[in-house]
Predict the 3D structure of the following.
Amino acid sequence: MAAHHIVVLDNICPPPEVNFAHQLTQYDTTSPEQLPARLKDATIAITSMTRITREGIQAAPHLLLIATNGTGTNNVDRVAARERSITVCRVPAQNTDAVSEHAFALYYALRRKIIPMHNLTMGGVTWSQGPAFKKLLGDPPRTNSEETLVVIGYGAIGQRMQAIGTALGMRVLVAERKDSDTVREGRVSFSQAIGEGTIFMAAAPLDDTTRHMLGTSEFEAMDPTALLVNVGRSGIVDEKALVAALQGGQIGGAATDVFETEPATRENCTLLDLSIPNLVLSPHIAWHSSKTFIGTNAVSKANLEAFVAGSPINVVD
């Protein structure tokens, strides 16, 4: 067979060194408009964040493999890939520690009001006014032992969240699927979890059963001091309902690393509004760690070499 043409569509994760003949083309970023031309001669496409659309796939007559550098494959039109018998593979479980730790970083930023306290201190005035500054920070925060952590999505990241929460002395509940008629051992019903939680950490994938699983009715049922942290997939939280819940004081605060439209801008995202209270945002960076890069490179190498050898691994249907 002729040498493969590997096209790397973004430079977030460097491509692995592979043991088969190939031509390598790399791009720092790829826009939707640039995608078709860049995939035209590719046999293997590698993406970390770039969306691979139906239009891009249709313009790539030689494309055989789409390799994503993440756990999720929501950035790939898998229906279009399936129609063309193009294999899609992923890199599972390499960001587990980074994402779960980032979730707790966001939690502490919210519960301990780190950003308001930083701004207050940097202002150089309010602190010197004595007890008045305490009023700006609201009621005293809970400690770990007073929290009930609800884990939503019990894959590798959710399990790691459970372990961290338990080690910190939190009561930890694992929520059953929202649409489930039964409750598996070690879990509680979704409705019970919503009613008892004081922290909700979401690490669920996005599909038809999880889209907007956290919306108006869930926020209304939560403790008004409860915090929501989403490091899973953006669509599992209804962003407009979240804004309303924060503005109406239905929940105590929220933090998210993921957005319904990415990159998020003031034009496409209702969350990018400085008037929304008790909200902490990060730019889909929870995965970012040295361990993630090392593991991703190793699994990506294995994925590519296994596919070329005729025994693909980590394949997504």
The first strand starts at residue 4 and ends at 8. Residues 43 and 62 are 5 Å apart (CA to CA).
